[in-house]
Amino acid sequence: MVADPLRPTSEPWPGMEAVRRLIAQARSIFVLTGAGISAESGVPTFRDAMTGLWERFNPEELASEEAYRRQPELVWEWYLHRRALVAAAHPNPAHHALAALAAQKHVTLVTQNVDGLHQRAGSQHVIELHGNLFANKWLDGCGRCDEASALPGMPPRCHLCGALMRPGVVWFGEDLPRVARFRAEHAAQTSDLCLVVGTSGLVYPAAALPGLAKEHGAPVIVINPLPSALDQTADLVVPAAAGALLPLLWPQPGMEPD
Ligand code: NAD
């Protein structure tokens, strides 16, 4: 094989070879991703400083039902801004690498992200714990509200009952969708390896899943360039950016194995 001058020849991150071996040996892999995996696609994480018009807001104060009831126009506009940002973004090598892994292993991909970039990279059956940025639902709907009853506005309202349309994401303080949570917990308990990518590990109950996997015997690998709250649960921490590291961990389509 001709050496690729752009590809590192020795282990660029401590722990990388051990992670490769664990992945190669695993039959079923539980993957938990967070906002960090989309950072290299240009989608800001919540812990990044908010930019432009939004820099004076704290996302935790916008992403809640209470905030929406208080300032629906402001919160709806923030979601429109995020929808536009994500619509213009593209999946990065980390999203593509995880889609490729599912062709080689039994993978359960559980994400806290609402951006749909895993699906756009080709991952199927993604478990979205926090909903999807492009979905809508109703706040205090009458049961007859639907897209056809929506009056355009900021935000749209149901012309039958006046209910507000809201984004179909899970806000701080809300329960996770039951089926998604059940499927994620089941996979955490039954997989033989747990890979955690790009999450601060601060948002529960998602952050409890790696601990659950560990209790059921799965080694836990954390991939994050910065320390995270899940480092103490991890058997191995690789301090790397996901888009740079993940494609080096298992064979990728179109690349010769080395
Ligand atoms: P977070 O913002 O709390 O943490 C992001 C983590 O990613 C940090 O630990 C950071 O060090 C790490 N990171 C940054 N760049 C990285 C890279 N290139 N590779 C790997 N890791 C990297 O995000 P969270 O833990 O997912 O939790 C916050 C909540 O924010 C979630 O509920 C999620 O729904 C929501 N959120 C989602 C998106 C999205 O869908 N893209 C964006 C912002 C926030």
UniProtKB/TrEMBL annotation:
Positions contributing to NAD(+) binding: Q112, N113, V114, D115, G198, T199, S200, N224, P225, L226, A242
Q: Where, by residue number, does substrate bind?
A: Y79, R82
Q: Which PROSITE patterns match?
A: SIRTUIN
The encoding gene: cobB
Pfam families membership? SIR2
Protein's name according to its UniProt entry: NAD-dependent protein deacylase
Subcellular location as annotated:
Cytoplasm
> Where, by residue number, does Zn(2+) bind?
C142, C145, C158, C161
Active site per the UniProt annotation: H130 (proton acceptor)
Highest taxon of source: Bacteria
Which keywords appear in this protein's UniProt record, sorted alphabetically? Cytoplasm, Hydrolase, Metal-binding, NAD, Transferase, Zinc
Primary location: cytoplasm
EC number, UniProt record: 2.3.1.286
Q: Which residues form the Deacetylase sirtuin-type domain?
A: 8-258
Q: What class of enzyme is it?
A: transferase
Q: What does this protein do?
A: NAD-dependent lysine deacetylase and desuccinylase that specifically removes acetyl and succinyl groups on target proteins. Modulates the activities of several proteins which are inactive in their acylated form.
Tell me the protein family, please: Belongs to the sirtuin family. Class III subfamily.
Q: What is known of its domains?
A: 2 residues (Tyr-79 and Arg-82) present in a large hydrophobic pocket are probably involved in substrate specificity. They are important for desuccinylation activity, but dispensable for deacetylation activity.
Q: Which reaction does it catalyse?
A: N(6)-succinyl-L-lysyl-[protein] + NAD(+) + H2O = 2''-O-succinyl-ADP-D-ribose + nicotinamide + L-lysyl-[protein]; N(6)-acetyl-L-lysyl-[protein] + NAD(+) + H2O = 2''-O-acetyl-ADP-D-ribose + nicotinamide + L-lysyl-[protein]
Q: Which GO terms describe its molecular function?
A: histone deacetylase activity, NAD-dependent; metal ion binding; NAD+ binding; protein-malonyllysine demalonylase activity; protein-succinyllysine desuccinylase activity
- What is any one of the record's Gene Ontology cellular component terms? cytoplasm
